[in-house]
Amino acid sequence: MDVVRETGNTNAPIESAMDRHSRCNRSRALSNAKSPYKRDGLSKRRRLAALVCGLVASVSTIGCGLTQKIPDGPHDTRTSYHDHSALRIEYPQVQECASPVAAAAASAVAPHALQDPASIPAFEITLPDAIAQALRSSPVLRSIGGAVVTTPQAVSTTFDPALAHANPQLGVEAALAAFDAQYTQSLFFDKIDQPRNFNTAVLGGGGGGGGVGAIFPAFSQQTLGTFNSELRKRTATGTSFALRNNIGYTRTQDPSAASQLFPSAFAGFMEAEIRQPLMRGAGTTFNRIAGSAGAAGQIGQYNGVLIARVNEDVALADFEAAVISLIADVEQAYWDLTAAYRVLEATVKGREAALQTFQYQQVRLEVGTGRRDEEAQARSQYYAFEAQVQSALAGPNSLYATEQRLRYLIGMPATDGTLLKPATSPIDAKVVFDWSSALGQALDRRVEVRRQKYNVKRRELELTAARLNRRPQIDLVGQYRWRGLGDHLIGDGDNGEFDNLADSISDGDYQEWRAGVEINAPVGLRAASSAVAHAKLNLNRERALLNETELRISHDLSDAARAIELTYQLVETNYNRYLADLKQVDVLRRRYRDGTDNINFLLQAQRQVVTSEAEFYRSISNYNLAIRDFHRQKGSLLAYAQVNLAEGQWCPGAERDAYELGRFLEPRHHPEAVDVPCPVSNGGFDPSAPQPTVGFEATSWGMIDEGISSSGDSPVVATEATHPKTKR
């Protein structure tokens, strides 16, 4: 349908909406007909964009692996920084301090191998001197295995007890720090300049004429200052005290300043607070065990002062065990060196005897009365003894190897041109121990038992704290506050009531208080109950380990007692065997030279006498080591070696403080009337105290060397078998 315009050419029809839509469709079709590649180009661009996106995603997921597979181009000649600098192995730079141990390590000379020991100057050393030098030569407690190189973290040092005390998380001072007063303070300034959603035309006023617009201006412009300080103290009973001070400064620069008393003012308060737990967290017992973890509400964590003290006692027990191990290793090396000297001497005597037999057989062969097979047998035996002498000098358990082992334990250079020679005679008398007394001492004095009992005590304390923690949190809270307002912070107070904030607060005209109860009770107390169960299981485990430790100690003590009986009997047996072999050699030597017997019997007898003499000296060394092992098993090795453990000297300030404090301390007249917490220990304990459990019995047989008692010695009874006196 056509519509005629009201103005203009009345003969021109107006195009309808339907006609316009048809024309647009025709023109779009004509355009497509004229550009056949337009749609194809758009599709190609879309496919190219999708391909690029896929490549980017692949590279991002593969990482650097794809780029590393692309070979360098002809112009990629510049090397990377990471090829030479970033990946190289560097040497640490530390401050080197001169010490006797470092000097001993650097001053070692070429080691001895096959040199004649008689040509090397001897340095005689007693066993007590060796123990003393081993203890004072280095803060590191050495061991024969040399674990300081492979596992230095497992090596004990004299610093370990001090490290346990100074531990910032588990030490006693760290536990006491939870009860230190805490002071916090903050000071902030703010500038506020912002529009406000108020219609001043409706409220009235606003410019500077007052009215409601002065109270609710269209913008806010202020300078603010806030100062907060707090001093908080927590006591051993769980009570928390706090003293707070708050000062706020406001300077108003918008129209609302007209409605204020002062354009700039100080407002603040002084507040005191007390918070007393009634159930969970209350009492000295809980707080001395749980510490800061209990105050923070952490369940199952205990770092109180009693736990820290137990940790220090365990560290002291570990240190004592390391000292005992060092003394045992020194004695082991010392008696091994003593036996190595004797074995070398016996082997050299056997070699000399074989040489004489060989030379005698050569003379007989030259004059025509000997036989070549006998000469070859004598020659073979001589070289066999020569090989034994060389092994006794430089073998794995030879003289020089055991001497170097002792040198390491006492902190001497590996080789310094001298040769250590033991000067302490071994014990050859029969030592008799009272079994019942020794067993009682072992179960009571062994450091391993004391250490495990401390672990049990720690678990008992944890169980006590876990039970006390299985309660709801109920706190009494009280606050009291003094408020004030002033034009100035501090002043003389001559300008009215609100001249300054300090006077306004101190006048006490505006006071507030608050008192109430806070309750926090987890329904079911599931976590706390789980902590109690966990503490019970830990306690049962430590008690079971304590029982097993005592059982194992009794077995080890029984083995040590049996070893004493066996090694002493072997000393007698090997000595008698040696005497018999000496007689056999004399008889067979005469029969061989008389021509009535074969050389084989003489050569065999020479080998037997060397073996029996070496075994005799080894049995003497093993007997002394068996005595050492028995003392170690019954917990008296420190007393046997006369080594005392004590704290280092206090600093002058600590001694003075202890003296001043002790002047005001007096013993309680009625200690039974005072309720005190359960103690952690039973008092002082001296691991070096002598124990009367041992005596000596005289022997009825004679020894073969100077320094070993003869058959005419009289019986000796002592309270403790000790080394010669040496001051520690």
From TrEMBL:
Chain segments carrying region Disordered: 1-38, 706-728
From the record, give the transmembrane residue ranges: none
GO MF terms listed in the record are:
efflux transmembrane transporter activity
Q: Which Pfam families match?
A: OEP (PF02321)
InterPro entries annotated for this entry?
Answer: MdtP/NodT-like, OMP_efflux
Q: Which Gene3D superfamilies match?
A: Outer membrane efflux proteins (OEP)
SUPFAM superfamilies annotated for this entry?
Outer membrane efflux proteins (OEP) (SSF56954)
- Show the PANTHER family listed in the entry: BLR4455 PROTEIN (PTHR30203:SF33), OUTER MEMBRANE CATION EFFLUX PROTEIN (PTHR30203)
Report the family membership: Belongs to the outer membrane factor (OMF) (TC 1.B.17) family.
- Name of the protein: Outer membrane efflux protein
What high-level taxonomic lineage is stated for the organism?
Answer: Bacteria, Pseudomonadati, Planctomycetota, Planctomycetia, Pirellulales
